[in-house]
Amino acid sequence: MNQILLSKMEIRNFKGIKDFILDIGGLNAFIFGENGTGKTTGEDAFLWVLFGKDSANRADFSVKPQDKDGSDIHFLETDVTLHLLINGQPKTLRKMLKEKWTRKRGTTTDEFDGHETSYWIDEVPAKAREYAAAINSIINETVFKLLTNPFFFCTQIKWEDRRKTLMEICGDVSDADVIASDKSLESLTEILSGKSINDQRKIIAEKIKMLNEQIKAIPIKINELSRTVLGEEINYSVVEAGLLEHKATLQKIEKSMLDASQLTADFRQKQQESFKLSSAIEKRKNELDAEARAGSRQLTDEKAKLENEKYRLEVASQMTGPKIKDKETLFANNEAKLVELRQTWIQENEKQFKEPDPEAFVCPTCGQGLPQGQKQERIEQMRHNFEHAKAQTMDKARSEGKEIGAKQTAISEEIETMKKDLTNNELKIAEIDERLSEINKEINAEAKDHTAPNYNVDEQYRRLQSQYNALMEELNKPVEDTTSELLQQKAKVTEQIETLNNLLHTRDVAIKTKARIEELKAEERTLAQQLSEFEKQRNLIEQFIMAKVNLLEGNINSRFKIVKWKLFDVQINGGINECCEAMVDGVTWPNVNHAGKVNAGLDIINVLADHYGCLAPIWIDFRESVSRIIDTQSQVINLIKSEPDKVLRVEVV
Question: Cα Rg for the chain, rounded, in angstroms?
C-alpha cells in the first residue's frame, strides 16, 4: 500500500499566516490555537500547494494576506513548501504566488498587472503542466481529498457517485444471487421468463390496472341489467292466474251471449265459485311446486354459506403468509447482527496494547526527549485509555447481543403461532372444499331427477279439480246473449287477455337477462382470481427487491465498522428508489453530531484507503469536540481550538 506522509510544511504570507513552519516528521500531530490563529489556514495551504483549492474545495478563494480593512496587502510573495515522504522517499513541492507590476512608457509609477505563479519539484523549477502531472502521478486529486478529509465523501460527492464507488469497492448483487438466497423466490425465475425485474414489474402493473378496470366495470353492468329486470319485475304466476280468470270471464260472456235468458243470479254465483275454485287450484299447484323444490333450496343456502366461509379463510391465509415472511426476514437479520456482535466481541477481546517506543516522546518546544518519569506516565495513560475503550466496546456488544436474543425468542413464538393458524385455515378450507363437492353432486343429481310434480296424486288437488270440472260443465251449457253490453264486455276481456299474453312473452327476455347477470358474476370471480395471481407475483417481486436491498446493503455495510449505508428508499406506495446515505447508529448523516461525523468519516477513509491502496494525511478540524477517534493507519493532523494559545502551537505524537 502506498503511503503519503507530511514531514514538514513551510508557509509564508499565506492568508492570515505571515511565517510558520509545521515540522512533524511524518508523525501524527496536534495543532493548538485560538480562533483566528490560522489552524484551518494551514490545511488550506496544504491543499493549495497540491491542487489550488482550499479545504472547502473552492478554487476561487483568496490566498493573499489582507489588512484590517479586508484589502489585499501588496508587494508580498505567497510561498508554501511541502516536504512529503512517499513510501519513505522524500518529495518536495513548492508553489509561490506573486504580483506583477509594470511601468508603462511615459509614466513614473508602477501599475498592477496580474499575478504570476511559480512551481518547484524537488527544488527544480517546473511549468504548471509539469507540476500538475507530477502531483497526479502521485495520487488523483479526488482520491486524495477522499483520503484526507473525513467530510469530503459525504458532502462533496454526489450520491450517485458515492453509490457507484461503494459498488466498485464491494461489488453488486446479481438477480440470480438474490433468487438463490431465498427459496421462496424460486418461482420468480419462471415468472420472469428471461425478462428483467423492472420489465416484468411494469407488465404486472399494467395487467393489474387492466383487471381492476374490468372488475370495476362489471358491477355497473350488473346494476344496469338488474334495474331492467327490477323495472319490469312481474309475478308471472299472478299473470297466468289472471289470464285464466279472464279466459273464464270470456267463456262466461260467450255463453251468456248464446243464452242471455239463462244469466240468472244462480249462474252468476256458480261463475264466482268457478273463479274461486280456479284460484284454489293454482294456489295448490304452487304449494306442491314449492314442496318439490325445498330440498334443492336448502342445499343452495348451505353452499352459499360454505363459499363465504372459504373466502374469509383464504383472505386470512393471504394476509398471514407475508407476515410470516416479514418475521422470518427480521429473525434472519437479527441472527446476522448477533454474529456480527460476537465477532466484534472476539476481535476486541484479542486486542493487546502495544507499548510505544519511549524514545519517540519528545518535548514539542525544545525537541529534547521527555524525562523517563513523564514517558512512563504517558505510556500508562495510553494503556489505561486502550483498556477502557476495549472494555466499553465488549460490554456494548454483550448488552446488544442479550437484547437481540430476547427479541428472537418472541419473534420465533410469533412465527410458530402464525404458521399454526395458517395450517388450521388450510385444513378448514380442505374440509369446506370436500363438502362443496358433495353439495354440487347432490344439486346436479336433483336437477337431473327433477320433474314437475304429479298434481293428480294429491287428494286436495283432485277434489278441487273435480268440483271445478263439474261447475264448468254447468257454466259451459249453451246460452244466448245478443245484447250490445255483452259484446262490449267481450271486446274488453279479449283486449285484457292479449295484454296478459304479451306480458308472458317478456318472461323469456327476463330469463336471458338474469342468465347474463350470472355470467357477469362468474366473469367477475374469474377476473378476481387472475388479479389475485398477479398481485401474488407483484408481492413476490417486491419481496425480491427487498431481499436484494438486504443483500446489497449487508454486503457493503459489512466493510464498515461505524457507518451503515442506506442504498434504497422504500416509498409509502411500495416503490423503491435508489439512494446513498450514510447513517451512524440509525441517524442520517446531516443529523449526526460533529464527533460522530468525524469518526464516520475516518471509517469511510479506512475503507477507501484499502480500496485505492493508499494512505494520506488526514486533517481533522474542531478536534477538541471529539473525545476519541477510531484507529486509522493514516497520518492524522488534529486542529484544536485552544484559547490560551494566541499563536499556533504544535505537539507531535
Answer: 48
Assigned C-alpha cell, 528: 378476481
Q: Which residue has the higher pLDDT, 498 or 118?
A: 118
Question: 564 vs 166, 339, 543, 553, 580, CA distance in Å?
Answer: 12, 16, 22, 8, 10
Instruction: Quote the CA–CA distance of 575 and 457 in Å, as a whole number.
Output: 72
Q: Which helix (H) or strand (E) holds 542?
A: helix 484-557
DSSP H or E segment with residue 435 = helix 372-449
Helix (H) / strand (E) element for 530: namely helix 484-557
Residue 393 backbone zone (phi > 0: left; psi -120 to 50: alpha; other: beta): alpha
Mean pLDDT of the chain: 87
Distance CA 367, CA 95 (A): 28
pLDDT tens, residue by residue, 77-108: 999 999 999 999 999 999 999 999 888 887 87
* Cα 138 to Cα 156: distance, rounded to the nearest angstrom: 22
Residues whose CB is less than 8 angstroms from the CB of residue 22 and which lie 6 or more positions away in sequence, other chains included? 6, 8, 9, 10, 11, 29, 31, 42, 650
Q: Residue 503 corresponds to which cell in the numbers above?
A: 306480458
Does residue 9 contact residue 42 with C-beta atoms inside 8 Å? Answer: yes
Q: What is the pTM of this model?
A: 0.51
Q: Do the Cβ atoms of 17 and 11 come closer than 8 Å?
A: yes
Q: Please, what is the angle between helix 265-350 and helix 236-258, to 10°?
A: 170
Give Cα 602 to chain centroid, integer Å: 31
Strand 618-620 relative to strand 636-641, pairing: parallel
Percentage of the chain modeled with pLDDT above 90: 45
> Where is 639: in which H helix or E strand?
strand 636-641
